[in-house]
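Entry details:
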Amino acid sequence: MASLSREKNCMSDEQIFVDTNILVYAHDRDAKEKHRIASEKLKDLWSRELLPSISVQVLQEFYVTLVKRKVAIPVARDTVTNYLEWDVISNDRSLFLEGIELQERWKLSFWDALILTAAKRAKAAILWSEDLNPGQDFDGVLVVNPLM
């Protein structure tokens, strides 16, 4: 129950880290209901005083997904560039090594462990993702699927 109340309060004062899939759905009109929900949620995030966090990895994955879906490279670049206004966590040596540690500890895929590591580095209380288990708390980072 505590995690549910944390989730409800997260929109105002807690840092939120956004995973790639949420960005993809927000820009994929073919995703129908998921597109509608994700785009509304991102609109809310843009209006917050505390802008959310993402990582360079998220931006890279998002860009590649847009290009694979036949979005013109200049349009994909401009779309990704808009998200540079958010708190962007860089990939570096320590993030890489911490990601390996979290992969081992939590039995995650390497890529999900890097997302979690970046969320921790951003001091995010909430990690918006469809890939990880909603409601799971990774030492203070609560996974929330905002599409549910």
